[in-house]
Model the fold of this input.
Amino acid sequence: MVLRVTDGQLLQKIPVGHSPYSMLSLDKNLGVLGAGEPPHNGVIYGFQLQEKPKILTYNCVVHSSNANIESSSFDVCVEVNNVEESIVEAQIDGASFYLSDSIKGEQITSSTFVFRIALPNIMSPGDFVVPLSLTLKSGHIVTRPIAIKLTRRHPLPSRLHLQQIPTIVQEKPTYSGAAIASAIKKANGVENVSSQKEIREMIDAVRNLSGYEPFQTWRIILRRVLTSQAQNYHELPEFSPKKLEKKVRPILQHE
Done:
């Protein structure tokens, strides 16, 4: 969703970003927005929506051309309205487009800038909210969010039949991740794949030993288990007798 920066007024109901935890919840004039590293270390912001929107200074109107992911570059024209002081330079943050540097705009009029943005071949379509920095004559910098939409020139098929995917049978309600891990190993030609019970035990053992939070299970710990040749948690290097001895000995000496 795109909100007005000054009062939080809802401008556009198109999802921005990839995290469901950042979803905005609205209740009459109250808005709640999630942020941070959810769910354990997340932060919730609450704010009230104003009934009458304020007129934003340096309000930006954005026009794009050739903005599709198949292009090597596309152009963005930004018209800045309600200007209080002369603008001498405008830059768009390039991080959303995998660029290390900002993109400097070409000034067409006193308040209109044109940008040419290079696109890597790994871009995905979507709506991007990026910071626009306006350098004023006094040297003061005003930052405004602008929305840029990237589309596909050639839409993906609505249906695709995936081949060579093994049948996944989840053996227990708590074995969903283990069932997927087992299928991944089979799909990659691994012989003598561990049972779902053994995979789940390896995941739980590594999580308990590492101290990772539960929400890290499927993006860190599962990767560790999948890259190991161990068949069960006893064969994991973390649980070898020498490793465990080194961990236990300092505790015994301290006691």
The CA atoms of residues 6 and 56 lie 7 Å apart.
